[in-house]
Design brief:
Number of domains: 1
Family: Belongs to the carnosine N-methyltransferase family.
Pfam family, one: CARME
GO molecular function, one term: carnosine N-methyltransferase activity
CATH topology: Rossmann fold
Number of strands: 13
Strand content: 5-15%
Number of helices: 14
Largest sheet: 9 strands, mixed
Order of helices and strands: EHHEHHHHHEHEHEEHEHEHEHEEEEH
Distance between the termini: 33 Å
CATH superfamily: Vaccinia Virus protein VP39
Strand order of the largest sheet: 2-1-7-4-3-8-9-13-10
CATH class: Alpha Beta
Shape: globular
Radius of gyration: 25 Å
Keywords: Methyltransferase, S-adenosyl-L-methionine, Transferase
Structural class: alpha/beta
Helix content: 25-40%
Protein name: carnosine N-methyltransferase
């Protein structure tokens, strides 16, 4: 989006007030410092155990065969020094990134119908009848209220943690992780671009929604999908997609803001220094550093933000909304608002996948495309855990036609290509699909989606949309 000064800037919207933003950012920084202290403390205890063990068991060891530098205690002294230095550096960088930033206040959730007057309409073909009140009461007898366990709150706090910020920044914005992005974000961009150029193009920007945007790389790649660096300088690029990103995490959005407005130089990070001390082959690899964002991103942001593109009729358009996806995009004002919806490593975060499906169907226009990539590794707060085949049937029932549905044959590292260097590695064979929205309404005209979701949540023992979504995670 154009800034007031003529250069390009991404615009951020949020519902949280300044105090809430400051509190979450401060919590993330404090937690990282505490984690860093815990790492050094644990290493110090390990060093003490190693030194005592060596003095008792290796007192007569052959010095030529067991050189002092090879003893665990000596190695741990080196590891403690290197870890302290790297962790301190990360804290310094995080203090620069996780600062309050300009954010436009967005309106509160719109609830048109009351819960009492609404009914949730089941969308299995041929059934489409609302559950009567007595049936809902009978169902509720078997479903206890949704009480957030401490481990579920920990899961949500983990996503907001500074350690996760470093992981996401590394995966999204470092040159080292480009192969992973090619297999994930690249596939989504290619699918969206291929379907877009085959459709009628009237010259207006197609609207794209990116739920679960994290630190914003997929949204960025879609906004600048049309830029071709091989073109002559005098040619003006065409930006076909106006992108709206959304994420519930204030720290993630803050990191995205910092990257989008980082037009001077990349910053150095140590993404592996706080990893658990297990499954390592070469412990020195935990001190490998990376630079964020990669130089090509810096160049693009400088070119766009420096005013050299101001004669172009179309400009790149990116907004970022901080808030709960279901809460914000089930609004009546968001009905048929988007031509495309792109989700990556997102759908398995749903507490109830029905809510995500209905919200996506609500927000996308008829014949619009939903493009997805990611596992079905349902989070611990999920009330439903469907297989890929079961999800496929449900997507059809939700009003979508299948265009592409496949599970990747190739293994994709989650975080970094170097994940393969340990004795254990985390890989995925992501589910990839492209589906087209049918021109049909799932809910009866007199009932809003929000009211139906409220009814669903009340029946299945979950928190209201009107309450902070983080209270149940």
């Amino acid at each position: 989006m154009d800034g007031s000064g003529g250069g390009w800037e991404a615009t951020f919207f949020c519902q949280a007030g300044d105090e809430a933003i400051f509190r979450e950012l401060n919590t993330a920084l404090r937690s990282y410092r505490e984690m860093s202290d815990a790492v050094i403390h644990q290493l110090s205890l390990s060093h003490e155990v190693a030194a005592i063990s060596e003095s008792l068991l290796f007192s007569d060891a052959n010095s030529e065969r067991d050189a002092p530098a090879a003893l665990p205690s000596k190695r741990l002294e080196h590891i403690i020094a290197r870890s302290a230095e790297a962790l301190e550096h990360n804290v310094f960088v995080l203090e620069k990134i996780l600062r309050p930033f300009p954010c436009i206040a967005s309106s509160e959730i719109e609830v048109v119908d009351t819960v009492q007057s609404s009914s949730f309409v089941y969308f299995e073909e041929g059934i489409r009848a609302a559950a009567d009140g007595s049936g809902s009461h009978r169902l509720a007898m078997y479903i206890s209220p949704y009480n957030a366990r401490s481990d579920l709150r920990d899961e949500d706090e983990s996503y907001n943690s500074a350690s996760h910020i470093i992981t996401h920044l590394t995966r999204d914005w470092s040159a080292d992780s480009a192969p992973i992005r090619k297999d994930t974000y690249g596939w989504i961009v290619d699918q969206l671009w291929a379907h877009h150029i085959s459709a009628d193009d009237d010259g207006t920007q197609a609207r794209v929604l990116v739920p679960g945007a994290g630190t914003g790389r997929l949204a960025y790649d879609l906004v600048f999908a049309a830029i071709d660096d091989s073109e002559e300088e005098k040619s003006e690029p065409h930006y076909p997609f106006a992108v709206e990103a959304v994420d519930c995490s204030i720290p993630m959005a803050t990191a995205a803001y910092y990257v989008f407005h980082q037009k001077e130089e990349s910053f150095k990070m140590f993404p592996f220094v706080s990893d658990p001390f297990m499954n390592e082959v070469n412990s020195e690899k935990r001190y490998n550093s990376t630079y964020v964002p990669e130089s090509s991103v810096i160049d693009t942001l400088k070119r766009i933000g420096g005013g050299t593109q101001q004669s172009s009729v179309q400009k790149p358009h990116l907004t970022y909304v901080i808030g709960d996806f279901v809460k914000l995009f089930s609004m009546p004002s968001r009905h048929d608002a988007f031509d495309y919806i792109a989700t990556c490593f997102f759908i398995d975060t749903a507490s109830n996948i029905f809510e995500y499906l209905l919200t996506i169907k609500h927000a996308i226009r008829p014949k619009g495309l939903w493009i997805n990539l990611g596992p079905v590794q349902w989070h611990r707060n999920a009330q439903l855990g469907l297989s890929a085949d079961e999800l496929k049937d449900l997507v059809r029932m939700a009003g979508f036609d299948i265009v592409v549905w496949e599970v990747s044959e190739e293994l994709v590292p989650y975080r970094h290509p170097d994940d393969v260097t340990g004795t254990r590695a985390e890989f995925y064979r992501p589910l990839r699909f492209v589906v087209r929205s049918r021109n049909e309404n799932l809910l009866s005209p007199q009932h809003s989606l929000q009211a139906s979701i409220e009814k669903l949540r009340a029946t299945t023992g979950r928190k209201s949309l009107l309450q902070d979504h983080r209270a149940e995670k």
